[in-house]
Design goal:
about 40% helix; Conserved Hypothetical Protein Ylqf, Chain: A, domain 2; 6 strands; Ribosome biogenesis GTPase A; 10 helices; six-stranded mixed sheet; Rossmann fold; about 280 residues; binds guanosine-5'-triphosphate; GTPase activity; alpha/beta
């Protein structure tokens, strides 16, 4: 599903609720610090305190991601980094986030936004200590908008993951597929896998060596995926690797950070950065 109806509804709901919050917590994937920014929010959130939370910091290439953090800080954002799978969320909110939320009402109110799969369900569920929303590697799992009471002082409004397809060029789409924010069809999955392969080949060539048999060719993505499939025992009649199973597993493993720490973009890659 590329642009489901609930995303449109979620955008309307976010707009409506913005009037009653003092800060915006934007959750990002630290492996794609620009592509995973929901940068259309900028126009909506003009007068709000903005706090960028770089999640999945545990599986990003920290040196590359830090360049983005410096850039965002220079532009006036508060930037925090985390691994929501292991962070104590209550302490994180109370000790690191709360001080940046202005107090305009009787309590501090923030809205949490982000593209799908950046970790919003993990954030909310781990905070609440029970499975109140479905967590999964499936974009668009969080459907409703709900208030979370952190303590007497802070309240957070959770929102569904939303996308801005009209703003995405091919490269952004590939990155969003690589981090699991867009699911895609056969063609776009091929594009994303080929893109990841080329990126790893140039930037992290040793990761590719580790996931196929020694001496395998890394000339082209298709051949590589066949080798990868064989290594995983996805073998078709005649001893050939099963391309489709190999491709889907490659995409999933990449998204889970199994190959190694990766960040898919640097500020230098962009001619113009709209933030
Ligand atoms: P939608 O519901 O689609 O909007 O997704 P979401 O943003 O709620 O993402 P969710 O919490 O479902 O997390 C997506 C995947 O990322 C899950 O497999 C999580 O376990 C994983 N994940 C979340 N936070 C982290 C993190 O800090 N590090 C790592 N390595 N994985 C994480």
């Amino acid at each position: 599903m590329w642009y489901p109806g609930h995303i449109k509804k979620a955008k309307e709901s976010i707009k409506k609720n913005l009037k009653i919050v003092d800060a915006v917590l934007e959750l990002l994937d630290a492996r794609a610090p620009y592509a995973s920014r929901a940068y259309e929010y900028e126009s909506l959130f003009r007068n709000k305190q903005k706090i960028l939370i770089m999640n999945k910091y545990d599986i990003c290439d920290q040196e590359k991601t830090e360049k983005w953090i410096d850039l965002y800080k220079e532009k006036g954002y508060v930037v925090l980094k985390t691994n929501l799978k292991s962070e104590n969320i209550k302490k994180f909110l109370e000790n690191k986030v709360a001080k940046h939320i202005p107090l305009n009402y009787k309590e501090k109110r923030a809205i949490i936004v982000g593209v799908p799969n950046v970790g919003k369900s993990t954030f909310i569920n781990r905070f609440k200590g029970k499975k109140s929303t479905t967590i999964g590697n499936t974009p668009g799992v969080t459907k409703g908008v709900q208030w979370i009471t952190v303590n007497k002082e802070i309240k957070i409004l959770d929102t569904p993951g939303i996308l801005f397809p009209e703003l995405y060029n091919k490269s952004i789409k590939n990155k969003l597929m690589a981090i699991g924010s867009i699911k895609g069809d056969d063609v776009t999955k091929d594009d994303a896998v080929f893109y990841i392969f080329d990126y790893l080949k140039v930037n992290y060539p040793h990761y590719l060596d580790n996931i196929v048999e020694k001496g395998s060719s890394k000339e082209n993505a298709y051949e590589f995926i066949l080798e990868f499939a064989k290594k995983r025992n996805f073998i078709k009649k005649g001893g050939i690797g099963d391309y489709y199973r190999g491709r889907n597993t490659f995409l999933k493993d990449f998204n889970d950070g199994i190959f190694g720490r990766v960040t898919l973009e640097s500020p230098e890659d962009y001619e113009q950065i709209k933030i």
